[in-house]
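Customer escalation, tier 2.

The customer says the design service returned an amino acid string that "doesn't look like it belongs to this structure." They asked us to rerun it and document both sides in this ticket. The original structure tokens are below, unchanged.
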């Protein structure tokens, strides 16, 4: 499927198979169990971390998308000839007889063959334990016996990344070789945090790092200089010109992990060595949010650095991901749609965004308040309890005054606080969708802490977020932009708390409408009255001051200048207020077509919908850093994939299936990979942005993996194109059939029942559920643990 000169999807769509190591950019996998994670590129590059890659990086990688030269590398050596090569393309780049990398759901498999020696390395993270397994099978395909050895090598980082001072940090590290478990172990007596008294650099790194192998080693080393040689490098390490590694360990080196095993193979013979790399806590718990029990590395090593242990662990990986991805399954005439909806968008959102929180373009120390909240919607169909967990975590990062940390780190929970106008509102917004999915109204009563002390029900948390937003209005009654709105790059529009955001009008309006339902449940009549009045005001001012003739303004600046107006030379029209104006129903019916026409004319392109047009070509200090990007990049007139998904929803809602599908297909990664040297990014995950038409690299994808677009790509596909939506009363089915589709099927779990939906194009809308005609578009909420056959005729 979707084959190009670099690779293709497997027939079942669950793997991407790379057949040429020189992809136009690193094509990576981000593999996580929600605690321990690694990323790996097709060349063998990558690194590992626990908790998050910013505060607790285990192995080193300095960001370099061109060289892609940091990894956990393994070398095979022919002991008789002295020839050696890495079993991945990097670092030796040895000409090969066979190369293949399979990035799968929860694992990657690297196949390499040199001199008739075939190596297959399967890498994965063990569910529920803080370690990864690298299972390497070497086969001698030659008719002669071979005397080989296998050497694994990587650099420890152990703590905060990037470490601002490597030479300083290495002074606190301590390595040892433990022959009882064939393992190198690492300790570090300093972590860049303060102690309980607030004294900096005064706590241990609360972990043990380990690198172990299933068989007794021939030799080991833990010092970089000794392994590479002074002025040496990974492509040609000094250690591989010597019979054995030098067995350095202790406190005085530059810590790496290197293990060497002998591997003599007769003709046709295979052997499997199982390596584990992991990170267990010491359980001292000086740092809040770290597991406070001691975890024993030795028992984990014994369990998993073992051929059978690894096999069992891999079966657990399959099971975990089957459960996580099994919430819904589409079969449509568009295989790209199916592959992304069924597997890869969900996998990316969970493994990459919510759990790993890191990729080649961005390392994160924690959570974006709005980011991972939006992402957690990916759990709705299969595991809504995991979305609930995310909602709890974010509620705890809110202050008593209703505002929230814009982002917060995993360990210690601190972050950045400012006057961002929208982030606090994502709490009620995502809660509303969670309740639509689950009807878990008890959750509204759950007591949760505030970041600055005190506690209140989740209802109260959300209410305070809304109340805070209701204090942020301009004199003429438009919501303020504040530090910025969803578009972080609009960072200078309204810092003086005068500039307005018309996207905020739509977002807040939507939240007010939704939250009324919950306020009703809580009999909070006074607040309902307040919200209704504000909603009326927003509707009035949005349409009065926001209307620009053919579309709606984006904003006004602190100085009162318009942004996103026909009067502007650059940044004339923005996607956000227009798409959300339609979605929130703030835009009156008689203007919707005019707005759609403008969006189609200025924003919708072959590769998706751009965020604004024309891009800014010169920095504007009264608008913000969005204008400082090169024109066409990221939020500056690029296709910002996250927001481009909302164009799909808006076109669908406005009744334009052709435009909705065009807006979807343009950003659906497998489609883009038919032109991989233009697109560059991975075919199987979304990119954060692709260059807008003004860029000489129009259509070039960047910032892949770590983007909120993955979850939304799934959500708009199923809710807006397939038209299957959770409502309080049941499952609404109202497809927006792309012109080229005449049918599809969709299996969806919904509140303890399975809905087997078959949709066909016809002349009149009709739903038959279990043989009975349904009036309207909502299929009952069965909740009976059974499977129901739903036959839909759509027009
Ligand atoms: C980044 C941020 C996200 C923001 C978006 C648009 O993706 O993580 O929170 O909304 O940029 O600026």
């Amino acid at each position: 499927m979707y084959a190009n000169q670099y690779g293709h999807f497997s027939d079942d769509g669950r793997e991407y198979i790379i057949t040429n190591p020189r992809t136009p950019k690193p094509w990576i996998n981000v593999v996580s169990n929600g605690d321990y994670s690694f990323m790996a590129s097709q060349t063998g590059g990558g690194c590992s971390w626990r908790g998050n890659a910013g505060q607790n990086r285990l192995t080193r990688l300095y960001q370099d998308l061109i060289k892609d030269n940091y990894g956990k590398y393994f070398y095979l050596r022919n002991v008789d000839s002295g020839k050696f090569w890495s079993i991945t393309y990097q670092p030796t780049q040895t000409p090969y007889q066979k190369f293949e990398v399979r990035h799968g759901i929860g694992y990657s498999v690297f196949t390499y063959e040199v001199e008739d020696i075939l190596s297959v390395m399967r890498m994965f993270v063990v569910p529920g334990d803080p370690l990864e397994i690298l299972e390497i099978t070497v086969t001698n395909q030659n008719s002669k016996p071979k005397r080989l050895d296998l050497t694994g090598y990587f650099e420890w980082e152990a703590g905060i990344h990037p470490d601002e001072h490597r030479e300083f940090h290495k002074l606190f590290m301590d390595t040892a070789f433990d022959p009882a478990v064939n393992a190198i172990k690492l300790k570090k007596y300093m972590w860049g945090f303060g102690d309980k008294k607030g004294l900096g650099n005064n706590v241990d790194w609360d972990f043990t790092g380990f690198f172990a192998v299933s068989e007794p080693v021939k030799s080991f080393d833990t010092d970089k200089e000794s392994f590479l040689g002074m002025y040496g490098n990974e492509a040609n390490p000094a250690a591989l010109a010597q019979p054995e590694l030098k067995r350095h360990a202790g406190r005085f080196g530059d810590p790496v992990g290197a293990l060497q095993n002998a591997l003599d193979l007769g003709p046709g013979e295979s052997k499997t060595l199982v390596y584990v790399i992991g990170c267990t806590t010491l359980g001292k718990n000086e740092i809040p949010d770290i597991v406070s029990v001691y975890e024993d590395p030795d028992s984990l090593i014994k369990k998993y650095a073992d051929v059978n242990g690894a096999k069992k662990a891999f079966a657990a990986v399959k099971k975990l991901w089957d459960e996580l991805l099994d919430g819904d399954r589409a079969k449509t005439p568009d295989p790209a749609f199916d592959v992304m909806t069924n597997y890869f968008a969900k996998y990316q959102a969970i493994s990459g965004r919510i759990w790993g929180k890191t990729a080649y373009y961005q390392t994160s120390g924690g959570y974006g308040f709005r980011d991972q909240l939006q992402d957690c919607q990916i759990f709705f169909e299969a595991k809504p309890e995991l979305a609930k967990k995310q909602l709890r975590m974010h509620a705890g990062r809110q202050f008593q005054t209703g505002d929230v940390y814009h982002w917060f780190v995993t360990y210690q929970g601190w972050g950045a606080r400012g006057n961002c106008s929208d982030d606090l509102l994502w709490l009620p917004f995502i809660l509303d969708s969670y309740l639509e999915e689950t009807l878990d109204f008890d959750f509204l009563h759950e007591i949760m802490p505030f970041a600055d002390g005190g506690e209140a029900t989740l209802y109260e948390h959300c209410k305070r977020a809304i109340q805070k937003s209701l204090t942020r209005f301009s004199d003429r009654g438009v919501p303020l932009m504040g530090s910025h709105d969803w578009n972080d790059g609009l960072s200078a529009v309204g810092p003086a708390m005068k500039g307005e955001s018309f996207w905020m009008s739509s977002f807040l309006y939507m939240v007010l409408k939704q939250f009324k339902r919950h306020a009703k449940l809580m009999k909070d009549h006074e607040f309902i009255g307040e919200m209704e009045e504000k909603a009326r005001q927003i509707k009035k001012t949005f349409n009065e001051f926001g209307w620009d003739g053919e579309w709606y303004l984006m904003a006004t600046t602190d100085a009162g200048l318009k942004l996103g107006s026909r009067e502007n030379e650059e940044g004339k029209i923005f996607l956000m207020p227009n798409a959300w104006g339609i979605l929130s129903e703030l835009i009156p019916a008689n203007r919707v077509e005019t707005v759609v026409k403008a969006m189609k004319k200025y924003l919708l392109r072959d590769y998706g919908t751009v965020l604004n047009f024309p891009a800014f070509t010169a920095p504007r200090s009264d608008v913000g850093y969005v204008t400082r990007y090169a024109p066409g990049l990221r939020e500056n007139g690029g296709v910002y994939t996250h927001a481009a998904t909302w164009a799909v929803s808006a076109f669908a809602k406005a009744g334009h299936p052709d435009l909705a599908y065009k807006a979807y297909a343009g950003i659906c990664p497998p489609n883009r990979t038919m032109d991989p040297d233009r697109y560059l990014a991975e075919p199987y995950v979304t990119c954060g942005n692709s260059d807008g038409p003004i860029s000489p690299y129009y259509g070039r994808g960047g910032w892949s993996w770590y983007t909120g677009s993955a979850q939304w790509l799934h959500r708009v596909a199923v809710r807006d194109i397939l038209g299957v939506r959770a409502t309080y009363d049941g499952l609404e089915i109202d497809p927006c059939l792309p012109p080229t589709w005449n049918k599809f099927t969709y299996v969806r779990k919904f509140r303890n029942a399975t809905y087997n939906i078959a949709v066909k194009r016809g002349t009149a809308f009709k739903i038959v559920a279990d043989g009975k005609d349904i009036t309207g578009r909502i299929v009952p909420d069965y909740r009976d643990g059974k499977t129901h056959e739903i036959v839909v005729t759509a027009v």
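Tier 2 assessment: The sequence is consistent with the input. Residues 368, 370-371, 486-489, 635, 642, 708 surround alpha-D-glucopyranose (CB under 6 Å). The mean pLDDT is 97. Sent an explanation to the customer and offered a walkthrough call.
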